[in-house]
Amino acid sequence: MASDLVGRRVDVIIAMGGTPSALAAKSATSTIPIVFLVSDPVASGLIASLARPGGNLTGVDMFTLELVAKRLELLSELVPQAKVLALLVNPNTWLAERLIHNAREAASVKGVQLGIVKASTESEIDAAFATLDQLHADGLIVVADPFLDGRQEQLITLAARHAVPVIYALREFAVAGGLISYGASFTATFRLAGVYAAKILNGAKPADLPVQQPTTFELVVNLKTAKALGLTIPPAILARADEVIE
């Protein structure tokens, strides 16, 4: 797909499918400007530095690594009696081990055990939730990942079936029936990418545009789902919530 875009001689490529799509675009062209939405673009080799990207790429750092610890903290606050929490991660993402490391550090700080469940297919998601019962997990953190983000209905259905509190990265999960979500606003983040694409179309060079970082984060709580799980949302979380769904 990246090669096809290069063949069409487009003026800008916006890579919105995470690091794999950005790397594919970079491999396909060293001249057409690329605007990405990824996590840790320096570590993945996309750019030289956040302040001075160099080359033909710039974009937005999605903060995936930094936010996994925050979600664990929120889930611990939501389920204070929890002794075991679990992390659902796609093992095929290049960030998997770093996400696990960050989550384990956060779990250690909170004094809870952390079980790791992995899934990169629909059937593996089913198996992961079955494993939660074996782990006696009191809650689950779903990491931000293009594959997992696309399995909204399946994840919400399994969370209800297994009666497990789950925190997600995208507000769309909480709106659709998930318990709680916390993450960068995709609407605001996509707008940042659009602004950079416009600047490039108006003559700016990607190498001169520092990588941006999200400034809008959303905490969304679904009270209906909490009631179904028999959970009382702490007032401190409700006070911080950007949206409460009743």
CATH-derived topology of the largest domain: Rossmann fold
Task: Calculate the terminal CA-CA distance, rounded to whole Å.
Answer: 42 Å
CATH class of the largest domain: Alpha Beta
Output mean pLDDT. 95
Show unreliable segments.
none
CATH architecture term of the largest domain: 3-Layer(aba) Sandwich
According to DSSP, the number of beta strands is 10
Query: Which radius of gyration do the C-alpha atoms yield?
Result: 19 Å
Largest sheet: 7 strands, mixed
From N to C, what is the helix and strand string? HEHEEHEHEHEHHEHEHEHHE
CA-based shape: elongated
Number of domains: 2
The helicity comes to: 40-55%
Helix/strand-derived category reads: alpha/beta
CATH superfamily of the largest domain: Response regulator
- Kindly estimate the percentage of residues that lie in beta strands according to DSSP: 15-25%
Lateral arrangement of strands in the main beta sheet: 5-4-6-7-8-9-10
- Give the number of helices: 11
Describe the model.
The protein has helices at 2-7, 19-28, 64-78, 96-110, 122-135, 146-149, 152-161, 171-175, 186-201, 223-229, 235-240, and strands at 13-15, 34-38, 57-61, 84-89, 113-118, 140-142, 166-168, 180-184, 217-222, 243-245. The protein is an alpha/beta fold and 246 residues long. It contains 11 helices and 10 strands. The model has no long low-confidence stretch (mean pLDDT 95). The chain has 2 domains: 2-62 and 185-215, 3-Layer(aba) Sandwich (Rossmann fold); 64-184 and 218-245, Rossmann fold (3-Layer(aba) Sandwich), CATH 3.40.50. 44% of the residues lie in helices and 18% in strands. Strand 4 (84-89), helix 4 and strand 5 form a beta-alpha-beta unit. The radius of gyration is 19 Å and the shape is elongated. The strands form 2 sheets. The protein has a 7-stranded mixed beta sheet, with helices on both faces. Strands 1-2-3 form a 3-stranded parallel beta sheet, sandwiched between helices. It starts with a helix and ends with a strand.
